[in-house]
Amino acid sequence: MPKFDVLTIGNAIVDIIARTDDATLKALNVQKGAMTLVDAERALQLYANMGPAIETSGGSAANTVAGLVALGGKGAFIGKVSGDTLGEIFIHDIRSLGVFFATSQLIGDPPTARCMIFVTPDGERSMSTYLGACVELRPEDIEPELVAGAQVSYFEGYLWDPPLAKEAIVKSADIAHAHGREMAMTLSDAFCVNRYRNEFLGLMQSGTVDIVFANEAEALALYETEDFSQALLRLQQDVAKLAVVTRGAQGCVVVEKAGQTAYAAEPVARVVDTTGAGDLFAAGFLRGYTSGRDHATSAALGASAAAHIIQQIGPRPATLLTELPAVKALL
């Protein structure tokens, strides 16, 4: 039996979350609803213009494994932080959740990554990310035994920006497949897809990636179309094993070579902050998938985890998700 249900590999980031309005976004030249990479100078300028903020460990793949553990799964994480204050915060936070994390810290510059997240009244989040130490993730940071011991290794598309990280991901996929394990990825962001469309398609078509998570905008961007049905048909042809496309309040569609099946979302009374919605959906789906549940149950777990997270500020569960009535019924 694998030691871990899921190993996630991604950018180790400390999130700085503040409420704002559309006028402030415009004044700061922050693109609403997108994740934009920024340099150190821009990061300092944005931080200086944020209102009261909450600082919490984040990063897409780290949020997913945090959600998986909150759902009762066994998870591990690989990501690079520096030996600074934010790095220590990240390490403390992720280990305190019960996630296995042992990636060596970077000595010296660049500092630990941080993401300035502006949340508007409609719950939409606009992110400006300084990658810092994340770009120093290298193939030697991939522990073969860790990958071999995980049922699924999952990485974020955001990680495709640093060149050495690409090598680390390919190494992980080779190890996973050599041990009969599976590789999964999230497309992360439509802008990320636009940068690496051909490479992402190559990962799917070659079988380097077995499972793909995307939202509707990312799926449309992947195939450069405005026709969602057409994007799903193309995805059905390209996916190695399984793709899951989320559609917010419209639920999700599970895509396999044999066909497509839509599943409903879990209704929420009020959206507070959409940060982490996709990350927690992936956590719920993978929790079901790695424990042998069918796609309907896995999708329902993903929907419950996502519904919970968008009703709070921040991308990580404040309580054990196994205590939620809907989750208890599914597990």
TrEMBL record:
Keywords: Kinase, Transferase
Domain Carbohydrate kinase PfkB span(s) in chain numbering: 56-317
Pfam families linked: PfkB (PF00294)
GO molecular function: kinase activity
SUPFAM superfamilies: Ribokinase-like (SSF53613)
Domain of life from the UniProt record: Bacteria
InterPro entries: Carb_kinase_PfkB-like (IPR052700), Carboh/pur_kinase_PfkB_CS (IPR002173), PfkB_dom (IPR011611), Ribokinase-like (IPR029056)
Entry similarity comment: Belongs to the carbohydrate kinase PfkB family.
Protein name: Adenosine kinase
